């Protein structure tokens, strides 16, 4: 016993070193579900406050770019408005979360009442990174504003990421810039996507190199691809609605002659370098969809 | 100014500089400059080793909190805090450094010794940090380039720091 104590005292430093490193590694590997350690990331009070103070100052320097992107978005939305089309097929308005569609003739019969599925909330970006392996965005909206984990996040131009953890006033978003090799399924962070022109389904990854470039896999060889084709969300994941831009095809190639799917290099639609405002999407029917899917999966097992 | 007060101020300033300035500027995907570990390098010579490691852990976990990299910075900081006494031992002349100045610096160690001391520990920090953060050896050249270029950037920053806060006494 005495020898043991002497031994421990002698190598105390080394054991302390091992202990601290083990603590660090536990933190690192619990990173995968870090909702539990929510107070030790940038959504906690101290760093959240510091980041929003800092952003108050730094925001002014980006006002021009932010304005430009908002004007562009307004332009896009205006051109999609019913009033900018010649034939008005609806005089619908949002009321109690339903969308009423009336017939077009003089009788004005109520055709259908559509339930609202997606709810958008705007959020200010207060911290953003692009040059790490796992990039996160802190936003100034939290559980008080109805933000919950696993909601989709989009920017003015396209998809941005998914909410990971939430505190009262802040939330941390994992952006699309989340390094994954794309080699093995299951352990990867990819976005379900499809091609706008032909509708082929694939998955979008990021390889950790350049914050403007992404990778798309699993597009079958039979697909007809063109440079500049738009890649959009597939709407399968219950996180994002359909038809949101993810990126534009830059180059594509077959990794070898016998491979059955294309490797596509695409430019992200979102400019991650100067993100100022994002929209958090809540899928109001999400619980119903996932419950149904899970119960079916359990039946099949 | 007492050594304690000086170190507390240095801790806060280096964390703020790292979070608000260095993490915000983007040079290249391969170059992520880190300066905050200078706090560990400039702690006094006679600090007990357990205290050194605990301070390293505290520093790392504080930065982890800001950059959402749970535990990665802390692991790298504890690593260099543990190795610091060994590096100092190798570099110290017979009979240890002069006792007149109690912290590592250019004047207490000599220019070449100090340069070796800083470069070795910064390199070790970056090796530990980037290995943990990239977490794959699938592309060793990418990892190596990232380590080397980031170390070079960090060393330039340390040089600027030393030029700014150089004291002759």
Biggest interchain interface, per-side counts: A-B, 42 and 37 residues
In whole angstroms, how far apart are the ends of chain A? 54 Å
Q: Name the beta content range of chain B.
A: under 5%
Structural class of chain A: alpha+beta
Gross morphology of chain B is: globular
Topology, number of strands of chain A: 15
Q: Helix-strand pattern of chain B, N to C?
A: HHHHHHH
| Average pLDDT of chain A | 80
Which regions of chain B contain 5 or more consecutive residues with pLDDT less than 50?
Answer: none
Mean pLDDT of chain B: 87
Number of strands of chain B: 0
Strand content of chain A: 25-35%
Terminal Cα separation of chain B, in Å?
A: 14 Å
Describe the strand arrangement of the main beta sheet of chain A, using strand numbers: 4-5-8-7-6-15
Low-pLDDT stretches of chain A:
33-38, 87-96
In which range does the helix fraction of chain A lie? 25-40%
Helix count, DSSP H or I runs of 4 or more residues of chain A:
5
**Cα gyration radius of chain A (Å):** 24 Å
Query: What oligomeric state is this?
Result: heterodimer
Transmembrane segments (chain B): 7-27, 33-59, 71-91, 111-135, 147-166
Protein name (chain B): Rod shape-determining protein MreD
Organism (chain B): Chitinophaga alhagiae
Keywords (chain B): Membrane, Transmembrane, Transmembrane helix
